[in-house]
Amino acid sequence: MRRLLLPLGALVVIVIAACGRTPSSTPTDPRSQDWSQIQAAARGQTVTMAMWEGNPAINAYMRDYVVPHVKSEDGITLRMVPAQGSMIVSTLMTEVEAGRQHSALDLVWINGETFYQLHQIHALYGPFTARLPNQHYIDWNNPFIAYDFQQPVDGYEMPWGNVQLLLITDTARVPDPPADPAALAAWIHAHPGRFTFDTGFTGMSFLKSLMYAFADRPGDLQGPFDAKTYRRLRDKVFAWIDSVRTDLWHHGETFPASTAQLHQLFANGEVDFTMSFNDGEVDNRVDSGLFPETAKAFVLHTGTLQNSHYVGIVDRSVHKAAAMVVANFLISPEAQLKKLDPAVWGDGTVLDVARLPAPWRQRFADAGTRTHAPSRRAIQPYARREPAPEVMIELTRDFRERILHE
Amino acid sequence: MSRSRLPDPWIILLATMTAGPVLAGLVFMLLYSTGLIGLLAHGFTLRYWHDVLDDRQTWITLAYSLTMGLASLAASLVLALALQAALGARLRRGALRGLLFVPLAVPPLVAALLSVEVLGNAGLLARLAHTLGWIDQPGDFPTLLFTPSGIGIVLTHMTLVTPFLLLLLDRLGRNARVADLMQVARTLGASRWQAWRQVCLPVLMRAGMPVLSVYFIALMGAFEVPLLVGAQYPSMVSVLIQRRFSQFDISTRPEAYVLASLYACLAMGLLLALFAWRGRREVGERAS
Amino acid sequence: MRRVLAWMLSGMLVLPLVLLVLLSLARHWTWPALLPAELQVRQWRDLFADANGLGTVVLRSLGMGVGVAVVATTLGFASSRSLARHARKGRLLALLHLPFAVSPVVLGVSLLYAFLRLHLAGHMLGVMLAQLVFAYAYAVILLSGFWNQRARSLEELASSLGAGRRQVWLHVLMPLARPLLGVCLFQTFLISWFDYALVLLIGSGQVSTLTMTLYQYFSSGDIRLAATCALLLLTPPLLALGLNHQLLSATIVTRLEAYDDE
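^ inputs. structure came back:
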């Protein structure tokens, strides 16, 4: 009988460990409280934020600036976990499926399709943005901010930053960057094997930007998803790809799976272009030595996508009060200004600077400028709004089927 | 020593903690993919199974994984045998032997990273070729990575598996006293090559088959290496499963489970068949 | 000729490490340069900029690895004895290989739901349990080779001389098995230390291990940072191997013995 002890004990320990976690009770909905009550409730809470952690600059901003600030000012412990995009949707969906009452995530860094998917499964808490004191500085009149991939934000996510898709090249190798799809095609033919795009978010956004170039009117891609318009523009874009395909990198037989891979190809000298949604990225990369000193970002004159990224609060979070306080800090003028600095992150602000109190207006105006990318103001005329999220979903699928599986 | 009539608790633990989770997981996936459970479930349906089995990509992926696994193992084996034949004694002692252990401390993730730097078109090998004047542009270098031929995958696996095989062959050889057997063959008049091919090789292969076959099955399900250096199409099965599982369009979840179940059954079937074949063969040997 | 080949092979074996070090110190290293044009310590600075965070991640990975190793080896040692004596040894051995047949991705995907229900997903403990499936199976396979005729005779001899079960284990069997146990601990540690698929799937992005950090750096596009992190990842195994590369060579011996029927 004693032989049973050890293995049985092992099994028992495992089972206990497995069932050991009991979640705390659900606190009151912060929307029923006023701001000072929310701040009081937030004190001592821990907020788990899901964000992409691949960029040391962004990590440093969060870790060295945001985390200590919310700790000392609001008594909140902010904890970052590496989850982004479809991983967040996946996690939250699986939680719902398994009947979990409380989510492991509180704050999520999202935009576009993620917002769309999370809304589909009712995973986001809201509307909550009206509650945050700093929200009245936000430029809600700006359609690039108030609409996330053509969906009204409706208070379910808080704008955090703003970016525009840019192409990046090495001016030492490409002294005169092509400014529209026709010039780009000509360049590709003249330099076979030196251009490609990735099959991830950024690459598909590049293709969406091309859709704008081929559209009869920019309004074609605004508003709710229209299958006929989509298919017409998609075919034009695919025709463009077909026209240059054999002169693409690896003869267009394969494409990089991610922006990271594309950056590597560019950094190694294998291709002459890369692209990025983080328009402040080039300065960062040149500084760290990854990109050559002569690297420069530029925009297509036919337009590139500009969009905002947001933070949302998970509906089943038990730390909503603290999450709201953190979100409020993220959109404060100090935090937004710090984030704007190309030496820190270089991410665009979502605040309407004109509405800020006087000293802030000046500080934003004086904010450090980028040296390797055109200024925000210079590229604004070329900014195009994101089309409906279905475009991204369909385009990704069609690209996989038509172009990759040929 | 008295035997308790109860089954040995350690055996129970063994079964529940290894085969248990695997089989339980398989059952879950079968239930989910037939619509019996799940957030989007509407009751029993073979729709997902139909879709996945009908999809050409499913079969291409499975065939591709099988091929890549076999190719990786075979290439590594050939290289290991060749190195052993060429370097023999030097591999058994000294600095070289110590160095053989270094790749064993490198995980697939890091090996893939290094492959990108070495085998890429603008990688180290290509730059060497350029320095020697053989090529002009990165595009001129043969494409090894991110290509459907999967050469990059095979080469990366070779760097991981060959050192282990070298050590394995060495140990097998010593166990089976291959050196003595070869000696006998030589005195009977066989040439070095004949002795190696007809004495040494069969003995090594026979003895090493169990380990090699398990390795092959594991290589079929490789994840990190094809993720980082493989082409997007065709993908190897683990990469495809993970991609389908975490995609934006959450209705592809059941399909991911179908593919995973399919692959799991295939791999487990192969494994059990291999073990059964081995067992039967040995019973046969003992009987004769 | 042989000498040249040996030198070439040695070079290729050392190349990975040299490359990683160069990448970790490179500033500009682009086509067609064979060596970095400029060096800098920025990568190391960036990696250790968050010394606290990095330290936590490393400690967590180490803790998980040691935990998995100890549990797998202990349970594995006891289980392997039962396995070695079992009539259906061959079939059980086949069962033990099932986790390795299906691969970590499939296991992770299939168990996630159950782990969530049990509040294990997204937690270090859950990931460790998943890793234990592989580590424990491996330990049993590896250690079953220990229970050969010699070990069994010694065990019986000690018992017949009056030693209690505890004494037999502590004073006869374990000293005998010590080298092999060392190998087992090391290998099962590596199963956890190097794992990426299970941490990704079961951890659901909430458990930060060094492999997750490595992959994040890799996916940011700066391979130099990834290389720097990789060096960190390679340190414990290389250290252990440097101290005693018997840790790996013994594996191969006894793994073979596990497949021998008696």
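Chain B touches chain C through 90 residues (CB under 8 Å). The radius of gyration of chain B is 24 Å.
thumbs up if we can close this ticket
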